[in-house]
Amino acid sequence: MPPRQARWRVVFFPRRCNSGATQVCLTIKTRPVNTMRPTSNPCLPLSILMGGCVLPPLCQAQLIDDSQLTLGARNFYMNRDFHGDRPPQNKSEEWAQGFVLRYQSGFTEGSVGFGLDGLGVLGIKLDSGSGTTHTGALLVDRNGDVADQYGSFGVTAKARIARSLLSIGTHEPLLPVAFRNDTRLLPQTFNGTQWVSNDVKDLTLTLGRFDSVRLRNSTDQEDLQMSALDRNGRQVAGRVASDRFNYSGASYSIRPTLKASYFYAELQDNYRQHYANLTHTAPLGLGFSLKSEVRYFDSSGLGRAQVDNRNLGLMETLSHGGHALSFIYQDQSGRSGMPFISGTDPYGFNTSTYKSFIHAGEDSWQLRYRYDFTTQGLPGLSLMSRYVRSNEFRIGQQQAREQELDTDLAYVIQSGPFKDLGLRWRNVVYRANFAANVDENRLILDYSHRFW
Question: Which of 153, 330, 377, 410 could form a disulfide with 424 if both were Cys (CB 3.0 to 4.6 A apart)?
Answer without folding.
Answer: 410
